[in-house]
Amino acid sequence: MEGRSVADAIRSLRDAGLGAASRMRIFGLRGSAPGFFVARFATTEPRPSVVVAPTLKQAEDWLRALRFFLGEEEATAPLERRVHWMPPWDAEPLATVSPTEEIVAERLSTL
Prior knowledge:
Blueprint: H1 6-15, H2 33-44, H3 56-70, H4 101-110
């Protein structure tokens, strides 16, 4: 995507015929550019999308970036949000400890 505008890159992806079961990887974006690109793509192609991050910190960074670029406040009601996140369960499998009520509520509102 080097040397191309974001609008041109999104148009190329759309013209490539991305179907409902399509996945894509975009490389070479740095800083806040990945969040900006995904937010722009989500705006021009309004359909459910998933961003998977390998760590909790990276997931939280994505959440903040997407909410910022889409103009969404953290206090937005769950049913009005465009950006949701699935927090980690924070309980070991087969453990007798359950996750906190906040985590369970956030996970349910995401689903």
